[in-house]
Amino acid sequence: MNHSPTAARLATRIERLKPSLVREILAVANKPGIISFAGGLPAPDLMPDMRDCIDPDTALDQYGASEGETAFRSAVAEWITHNGLPVAPSQVLALSGSQQGLDLAAKLLIDDGTPVVTESPSYLAALQVFELFGASVLPLALGRDGPDPATLDALLRQHRPACVYLIPSFQNPSGYCYSPEVRKVIAEVLDRHDAVLIEDDPYRSVSLDVTHPMQPICSYLKRVPWIYLGSFSKILRPGWRVGYLAASPQLMPYLVRLKQASDLHTQRPAQAAVANWLRHAQRDADLARLRAGYRLRRDAMQTALERHFGDLADWDVPQGGLFFWLRLRQHQATRSTLDATLARGVVFMPGESFYPGPMKPTNTMRLNYSLSTPAEMERGLAILADCIAAVSAA
Ligand code: PMP
């Protein structure tokens, strides 16, 4: 009998499951001595102290409800409402990371060949999951204030997609934040069609200097159903894998069943600790400290970038989130550039893998600023600039 993996009768969708460049790079980025601008890892020294929030109740060691802990759902409903989207606890589902919400949404909405609109560029692991379930991805070009609503309207009219996936606040990878006007008009456009909005909002609390309230687009919708995804990975601990979704009431029964089929429920002690933190007197002070720490790092990266990339690239200073997005003027930053920088101990994310569809520009790069010290930024960016010029000249 042949037991080789290639002879196994795998599902046809496995052919659509692409390896993730981020995972490959993160595998090497963790090695000692490597300067990594590649991942989206929050800074360990800025994570709030959660010792007071751990719940010793051993009842939490038992199986729990697929929807999530009652205390978690009500604390999260208040949190989402505080962030501008009024929801009831019954509209909240605890997730094992907001990534799980993308998986559940894809299972709910995507069949083989289903058209789905995403920003271009967009979050790699969302594209990966949509494509796994057979989506035919329709790229929507993203500008610094968001996408052009008229272009979205034309895509919706022409292709009648099942859903539209947007990351309006500190988008991954671009860092762009939709303007208040674009948010409102996009909601009006969506309400004229019947696509479900999936709004992904994991970076909202890493807001450094945006002055408008970053109103969730879901909050403006009057007619079409929506799924809003949030995360505690960027502000508390990614390793705890606690996120959430809120959704229109008519979608909730399906999402709860999909969650049950996926992993029964999110781990209860972590939900309890997060719920306690949300109600903790220190919460806002923790967030203020986190933002102050990220502001310093973002500014240090900006200074180092001006020195090493001033002649090579254009970029906007991100007003939140964890990334700089560089557009090289004449050079390329491809996989072979990455091989060259890796040989010199520096990793970054070439931008091309974030583009859905066949057009993949090779002149963009995503640089994380939250993990490196100012000295590492200096050294790492000097090496990056050097390699980019050398590889492009070769
Ligand atoms: N959405 C976006 C846009 C992200 O950048 C990330 C994390 N990199 C996630 C979702 C998933 O986050 P988590 O599962 O840790 O909540």
Automatic annotation (TrEMBL):
Coiled coil: none annotated. Its cofactor is pyridoxal 5'-phosphate. The keyword Transferase applies. InterPro entries: Aminotransferase_I/II_large, Class-I_PLP-dep_aminotransf, PyrdxlP-dep_Trfase, PyrdxlP-dep_Trfase_major, PyrdxlP-dep_Trfase_small. GO terms for molecular function: transaminase activity. Keywords: Aminotransferase, Pyridoxal phosphate, Transferase. Residues 46-382 form the Aminotransferase class I/classII large domain. This is PLP-dependent aminotransferase family protein. The lineage of its organism: Bacteria, Pseudomonadati, Pseudomonadota, Betaproteobacteria, Rhodocyclales.
